[in-house]
Amino acid sequence: MRNLFLTRVLTQQIMAHTPMIFREIRELLIDHISHRCCWGSRLACT
To answer: What is the SS3 assignment for 46?
Structure first.
């Protein structure tokens, strides 16, 4: 019974933090892609 409670609590915590994690991953990917575009083409950097 205790394991079920701990599993439920952990699941709720993970679900609460999931949007923040995906937002950080998205920002890192955008930064990485824009950096590669910048170095791949001199016209991309102004």
So the answer is: coil
Other beta carbons within 10 Å of 38: 13
pTM above 0.90, yes or no: no
The vertex-33 CA angle with 27 and 34, nearest 5°, equals 90
**Which amino acid does the sequence have at 22?**
F
12 in helix, strand or coil? helix
What pLDDT digit, counting tens, does each position of 25-38 carry? 888 888 877 766 65
Q: Which amino acid is at 41?
A: S
